[in-house]
Inverse folding.
């Protein structure tokens, strides 16, 4: 049941991205070009997403279970730290250079073309690199903690 719901929600999200033309990098880059031919339509899409998310999180924090009955796990921390800021900067730079963020890039794969494919492959490679570095960092911390305890 969960897989079917996830598929339906993903399809609705993807169709929304296609209808709003957010899979078109020139649409995104037009929004980011505030000194040129600025296209504010992405701001309305983002505003709608923020509104829906605000309502959804407002409901979610009052619940202990999802609508399908699973335990509801929300982020435990609200701290804005160096890693979060750096991640936001890297995400923003990548978004500005490519005109894609992950959701629209995945939806763009249905159109064919090399650009969304290169972006998604690069995205997956970056995620794998992060996991590798995170695993190594955790192993180093663990070894350091064990060495300090003796």
């Amino acid at each position: 049941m969960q897989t079917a719901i996830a598929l339906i929600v993903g399809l609705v999200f993807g169709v929304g991205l296609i209808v709003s033309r957010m899979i078109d990098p020139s649409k995104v880059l037009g929004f980011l070009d505030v000194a040129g031919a600025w296209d504010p339509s992405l701001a309305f899409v983002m505003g709608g997403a923020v509104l829906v998310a605000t309502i959804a999180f407002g409901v979610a924090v009052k619940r202990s279970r999802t609508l399908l009955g699973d335990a509801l796990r929300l982020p435990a921390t609200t701290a804005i730290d160096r890693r979060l800021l750096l991640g936001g900067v890297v995400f923003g730079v990548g978004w500005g250079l490519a005109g894609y963020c992950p959701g629209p890039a995945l939806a763009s794969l249905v159109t064919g073309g090399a650009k969304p494919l290169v972006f998604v492959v690069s995205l997956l490679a970056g995620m794998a690199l992060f996991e590798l570095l995170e695993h190594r960092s955790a192993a180093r911390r663990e070894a350091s903690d064990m060495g300090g305890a003796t």
